[in-house]
Amino acid sequence: MQIRLTVLGPRSGQSCDVLVTAPTGTALSAVAGAIAASAGTGQPARSGAAVALYAGTERLPANAVLGHPPLVDGAVVALQAPLGEPATQPSEHTPRLKVVGGPDAGGVHLLHGGQARVGRSAEADVPLDDPDVSRLHTVVTVDGDRMTVADLGSTNGTALDGLLVGQRPVPLHPGELLRVGASTLELQLPRQVGDDAGSPPPTGRTAVPDGEGHLQVAAVATPSPPSAEVQPAPTPHSGSRAMALARRLTSGRSAQARELQRLAEQARALRVRYPDPAEVLLAALGPGPRLWGRGAEHPDALTVRLGLADEPVPAVPVTVDLRDAGVLGLAGAAPQARAVARALVAQVAASHGPSALELVLLTSGEDLADEWAWLRWLPQCRPAQGQDCRLLLGLDPEQQQRRVAELTARVGGTAPRRPTVVVVDESSGRPVRGELTRLYERGAAAGVFVVQVTAEPERLSPTCGARAVLTGEVAAHLDVTLPDGTVVPEVVADGVSTTWAERFARALAPLREAEGPRPRSALPDSARLLDALDLALATPAKISARWAELPTTGGAATAVLGTAADGRCAVDLAQDGPHLLVGGAPGAGKTELLRSVAASLAAADRPDRLALVLIDGSGDGLWICTDLPHVCTYLGSTDPVRMRELAQALTAELNRREQVLGGRDFAAWQAERLLARSRDGAPAGGADGTGGPARTAGPRRPRPDPAPAAAREEPALPRLVVVVDDFDALVAPALGSPGRQSTGSVVRALDAVARRGARLGVHLVAATGRPERTSGGEVDEQAGLRIALRTDDPASSRLLVHVEDAAGVDESVPGRGYLRRPDGSVTPFQTGRVSGRIPRTATLRPTVVPLDWLRMGDPPTRRPVRELGNGPTDLALLASALQRAAESADALVPSPLV
Ligand SMILES: Nc1ncnc2c1ncn2[C@@H]1O[C@H](COP(=O)(O)OP(=O)(O)OP(=O)(O)O)[C@@H](O)[C@H]1O
Q1: Residue whose CB lies within 8 A of the most ligand 1 atoms, among 526, 591, 829, 845, for a mutation test
Q2: Per the database record, which ranges form the FtsK domain (predicted)?
Q3: Which residue has the higher pLDDT, 563 or 48?
Q4: Range(s) for CATH 3.40.50.300 in the chain?
């Protein structure tokens, strides 16, 4: 389990982000010391006892469980002192004042009774960073059920639904719009949230903790627009059309008033349909019914609201559909332009879940990076398509080039991908590196939409399908050019502060879309092979008893891979294979899976009935399996002479088997041999008639074959499994690799095994790190069983298992994979680990690592998983028990091929 926390040091202003990795169910006390040390307290990481940690104003108990609320992804913990003052709990009747438009929009202020002063001053109860607002501008008074508003002698005045308000209080009703400076406020009673326009009741959505640091949010049913949306309405971006309509009203004052009334109603419905920043925040905090409600099919997918226009009636939302625009250009002085860009990004992140949207940020300069740092909490910024980074960020030239290359690779591709919104912020004047023109010109066709932010309108790309240019002395208004060429002037822009954005994004950080009937969380993040084999106590007696129960026809070659959602995940090479191909990115867990396959095959049958040949195409990852008594031959990739010898020996073994079997199938031959032996009166415990009850283990040595004459004359013919790691390094050897000259002969021998092995009782289990290089070869073609562990891209996953899911596997879960069987079924599973030193009751040691947001766009460094203790590995324990079981069963160790 991994969660990201922000730790606030005891001195205010000092904070850092940390990544906490711990086994599920770990108590806070296990990492409290390390958390304190990471915040620079000078405290040694191990002394966790005296550390007081707070979530808000609540002190966290030492036994608080990591991964459960409040300790979920994105949480803030304060060291030694509570964070803020205890808040007065809102009752269900507490009204709230929302800032629904303007340069500092998005605020939601609870009105507990008495006076709430609105103004630019820090003393104001509702502070607004709006230059057109006076220090103390307006006062809203709550007296029981009665609410009033009065101007406080402001410079620019206060208006309520278009009518000026003086210093004498006037009644304020829910839904009325209060204009102060460039800001618009609205009073809301709790029961009203979502009431309008038939949207779901304000019950919020269930967010179920998964104990892994996340809250699962159930999917929204069908993306039907609220009923008000289907009325014929002035589209919000048709401000000028609506103006013309109003001008055409000639039939007297009452008709004109009625028409204006109708337009005002429609504007109100549109404000519900395209929510203001305050509603966006409430959707995230709830989580509310509108969160992640727009999928690809939704009529308003990727439609963003830029602000409010006052023609022909006040407060008509002006929106742009990014699918029409392709590139939306936003130009104007910082920080206003960035405040508007933040509001746009927050809207799409609130309305589209991570399965429907990917967000990428490209910008330069640390100041800008700080302004966008809130993005690090958004689930939509996490790479889910195999991108080589922890977050989809391009904050320096190298990261930018990587991100742009990943995005342009999609242009012209056919793979269906979730839509992507790319923010290119060049408002500091520093250009973003990479081939952006291609993206601007052709990105939309591949589902990549861009929001370009610049300081000057001239710097906007000519490909912008829509433009919004900040105007006016304090840059609070936008001149908007829509994709159809319509110009809407004087739009009061929606802007949000970085503080607002941080709060919004942290609320989203732990949320995940609950999956359907096959929840991914049903799979553990790690599994132990010995548990899956039911050999947690791997004693020789237990193994001997297991072997003694086997049928003696040389039948199964069962390899337990690990754990699937419904229990053990296993394959039978004899029935489902004959061969197994494993693929995955570096570090995905291929070598470990091959070790587990070798170990579980060995546990499944006696060494005289099942032999293993191990080949490392590069490195020596399989060497540690040579303690298994079933291993007759090991080959590394550095000795060209031995490689050629083994290639010849493998082919010779195939030929020998052809001869011995005399045209019969391996299983049929074994059955006949057994029959012959039982006619001779030999016991039926083992393939050579040497089975029977387990005896006390003796030294590991070949025993004289006591089989009767008929069987003794037959040559030994165990099932043979050839396990090959880094097969791609044999197919396409690196320049200068020592065994390069002999790899061709080994590959040809393996091809022969792939082609001829099925009938001869010879199987191949091969791992490839580059499926594109090995695809189409004999080994690939003949592999009926196929596994994709985490892949770098969807195409590799498709090559391996015909689905793209393996590209979405999180890097933090090595060994997670998808198994495809010959019948086309695909099963997710977690590889059972066998080379770990993981005692039955213990797991991985919890760690706390500082996170640097500027480096999250870099390729991640791969750290080996730390293990507990330095005792023997599970593999060593199993191998020793197998050796003793083989000796006590008098099972002959197979002879080496070379
Ligand atoms: N099933 C697993 N459970 C837990 N940890 C695992 C598992 N498989 C692999 N790992 C961890 O991931 C690391 C990488 O695994 P492994 O070497 O098997 O990957 P690989 O795909 O063979 O990588 P490469 O192609 O770079 O050799 C290992 O050091 C191990 O710590």
Answers
A1: 591
A2: 566-798
A3: 563
A4: 300-513, 527-677+718-836
What number does the ligand 1 atom closest to the CA of 562 have? Answer: 1
Q: Would you say 239 and 247 are in contact if contact means Cβ atoms under 8 Å apart? A: no
Query: Tens digit of pLDDT for each residue in 4-32?
Result: 999 998 765 688 999 998 887 888 999 99
Output the CA angle 778-780-782, nearest 5 degrees: 65
Architecture of the domain delimited by 96-192 = Sandwich (2.60)
Q: Is 686 annotated as a binding residue?
A: no
> Predicted confidence band at 519 (pLDDT cuts at 50, 70, 90)?
very low
Q: CA of 312: how far to CAs of 229, 308, 413, in Å?
A: 19, 12, 45
CA dihedral 711, 715, 716, 721 (to 10 degrees): -140
Bigger pLDDT: 749 vs 736: 749
Ligand 1 center from residue 634 Cα (angstroms):
20
pLDDT > 60? residue 497: yes
Q: What lines the ligand 1 site, CB under 6 Å?
A: 526, 584, 586-592, 769, 814-815, 831, 833, 864-865
Determine the Cα–Cα distance for residues 454 and 556; give it in Å rounded to an integer. Answer: 66
- Which of 560, 563, 592, 768 to mutate to test ligand 1, by most ligand atoms within 8 A of the CB atom? 592
Report how far residue 161's alpha carbon sits from residue 158's, in angstroms, rounded to the nearest whole number. 10
What is the position in ligand 1's atom list of the atom closest to the CA of 725?
22
The CATH classification number of 300-513 equals: 3.40.50.300
Atom of ligand 1 nearest to the CA of 588: 21
Q: Cis link prior to 299 (omega < 30° from 0)?
A: no
527-677+718-836 fold: Rossmann fold (3.40.50)
CA 611 – CA 554 distance, rounded (Å): 12
The CATH class, in words, for 2-79 is alpha beta
User: Of 213-227, 286-300, 393-407, 855-869, where does the model show the most confidence?
Assistant: 393-407
CA pseudo-torsion sign 619, 621, 626, 631: negative
Atom 13, ligand 1: which residue's CA is nearest?
587
pLDDT digit string, tens, across residues 213-236: 999 998 765 444 444 333 334 444
Task: Give me the pLDDT at residue 94, please.
Answer: 82
Whether residue 257 is annotated as binding a ligand: the answer is: no
Nearest in space to 570 (alpha carbons), one of 821, 878, 885: 821
Q: Tell me the average pLDDT of the chain.
A: 84
- Pull the structure tokens for residue 469: 């240019």
Provide Rg for the chain, Cα atoms.
34
Q: What is the pLDDT of residues 352-389, one digit of tens each?
A: 999 999 999 999 876 777 899 999 999 999 988 778 89
Q: How far is the CA of 52 from the centre of ligand 1 (A)?
A: 37
Whether the bond into 287 is cis, omega within 30 of 0: yes
